[in-house]
Design a protein that fits this description.
This protein has a two-stranded antiparallel ribbon. Helix content is about 60%, strand content about 5%. A hairpin with a 5-residue loop joins β1 and β2. The chain is mainly alpha-helical and about 180 residues long.
Length: about 180
């Protein structure tokens, strides 16, 4: 596969159905922001915790499916990749599985901690942006609703993983002062 084609040199790109859209379209912005989340998670895949790294790898694969899903304006295309509720259910299992290792959350916490914990918080905030971009896209064009649900749950999972890594590394969570 050739890396460069020159087809995007004038600010347009192809969707899955080969229709051409501006690189500033809401659809491109949505799946481009999902790509940012995926890249941020890629930086974290050597967290030092095998269970976390395995879960992050699975999340990256889910995000790749979401990108493909969003790149397809035909939501009825059965041959195209689609995000499913199974992936969201898996995220809930991950969250629930780690919750027992964590102290109950009694207040807001500052997004900080160890380097990996802080980067997980950063990935969570990029995930929230991706979710907002997808909601914005969905207000204009049909998309797979499971994409938004998954991204919402993913931000919760990244929050939980940040707390988990910080707890395992003995980092005390800090609450904001009002």
């Amino acid at each position: 596969m050739k890396i460069y084609t020159g087809r995007g040199d004038e600010g347009m790109t192809d969707l899955r159905d080969m229709s051409r859209v501006s690189k500033t379209s809401k659809r491109i912005e949505a799946y481009g922001t999902v790509d940012e989340v995926n890249s941020a998670i890629g930086v974290l895949r050597s967290s030092g915790y095998d269970d976390v790294d395995d879960q992050l790898r699975e999340i990256q694969n889910h995000l790749h499916v979401i990108q493909a899903d969003l790149a397809n304006p035909d939501t009825d295309d059965e041959d195209a990749p689609h995000m499913t509720a199974d992936a969201t259910d898996w995220l809930e299992t991950v969250i629930d599985g780690h919750d027992g290792e964590l102290e109950p959350l009694e207040s807001f916490i500052l997004p900080s901690g160890s380097e990996v914990g802080a980067r997980l918080h950063q990935a969570r905030s990029v995930c929230r942006r991706a979710e907002r971009r997808c909601v914005e896209l969905a207000s204009d064009e049909p998309i797979n609703a499971e994409v938004v649900t998954y991204l919402n749950r993913l931000s919760d999972a990244l929050f939980t993983l940040a707390r988990l890594v910080n707890a395992r590394e003995g980092v005390t969570e800090e609450s904001p002062e009002y």
